[in-house]
Amino acid sequence: MKRKIKKIIVVILWFEAWMAFRRWKPKLIAVTGSVGKTSTKDAIHSIFSKLSTAEASEKSFNSEIGVPLAVLGLANPWNHLGKWLIALVSGMVTALFQRKPADWFVLEIGADRPGDIERITHWIRPDIAVINKIGNLPVHVEFFASPEEVAKEKSFLAKALKTNGTLVVYADDEHALKIRDSVKRRSYSFGFDDKADIVASNYQIQYGSKRPVGISFKVGFDGKILPVMLKGVLGRQHVYPALAAIGTAVAAGLNIVSAIEALRDHKSPNGRMRLIQGVKDSILIDDTYNSSPAALNEALNALHDIAAASRKIAVLGDMRELGTYSRAAHLAAGKEAARVCDLLLTVGEGGMIIAEGALDAGMKDDHVRQYSDAVEAGKELQNLIQPNDTILIKGSQGVRMEKIVEEIMAEPETAGVVLVRQEAEWKKR
Fold first, then answer.
1. What does the pLDDT average to over 379-384?
2. Do 258 and 306 belong together in one domain?
3. 125 burial class (0-12, 13-18, 19+ CB within 10 angstroms)?
4. d(CA 205, CA 234)
5. CB burial of residue 224 (10 Å; 0-12, 13-18, 19+)
6. Which of 240, 262, 284 is the last residue of a domain?
7. pLDDT at residue 1 in the model
8. What would the pLDDT profile of 247-258 be if each residue is shown by its tens digit?
9. How far out from the chain centre does Cα 97 lie?
10. Which of 39, 136, 222, 302 is deepest in the core (most CB within 10 A)?
11. What percentage of the chain's residues is helix, strand, coil (to nearest 5)?
12. Which is nearest to 380 in space by CA: 408, 401, 413?
């Protein structure tokens, strides 16, 4: 019965969203990939909202039910049927009577299972489609036969492009490039690869008072070399959303210098390699939104690259939805952590395998600690922190690693603003 009700709600929501788009006639930018979707969507919105008018889906509303909610500007009623009825009425009012809110809509499109994106593209045809990194071991691979099947699902978004649409594609990923080659559309590629149309170079961590404060890099396009600075974040993984946003601006005919200037005050989404002040003058790298093998590897590389006089600590939770790839992926993560960290704390069943991988790689027993849940790990970590420690915290959504950040951040009263999953529905879980 619940499944039938959900299907009915989805159809009504999409019909309302379709009616709204038909009235408003905005241009549509749709973003997919296995990592970096929300960061890319937000970076694009930062540019387009300053250089034009733009609306973007809130947070990570990227599912078959989340996308129309985003279009209609509705909150997620979760499991409250009464609130769903109110939402459907509100959606109809929006579709029929609301004035066009913006010239551009930026939507995030995700896929947990085969068919997810294909169904969404029955309702939308983007003017610009952005394909982020897919990787050889993507997130949600548990429900797909192979990484190639994940790429196939993502390709439906590119195939849904309007005839005069443009594809903006991640140049450092073979799966993304194959999607580009399979679709006969104008395209721009972005990445560190010299063959990309929009090329990043000279990536550096920026420091203030000997502490990391952000990153900088240069962007090359059409003979121009332009500097970019992103504050409050770490890791090369933040270069790609900025490049994708710049590429999208170019695809839309916007000035690249103005696009880069619009990123000056851009803030990345919570829980994505965000720098936060910790207790005892420690530095926290909050990457708690989610975790996958590719994203975790990038996070550990970012931790490795920091010039730090004190210890480097990684607090790592399960990587979920990996299916048969799970054990090997967690062991590999442990091996990588052993290369980077002075101290490793793990959380959950997958964390136990990460710890096993680290110990197998030669990390000392007393440098590896294992915990059953995030609350226990956070309380113990309080006692372990020393001044100037740099601490990476990362894990899949269900492990709730943000609870650790809240436990050890210097200003826990700001948790509701700077951490992920602070809504009442999440707090109940």
1. 97
2. no
3. middle
4. 7
5. exposed
6. 262
7. 47
8. 999 999 999 999
9. 33
10. 39
11. 45, 20, 35
12. 408
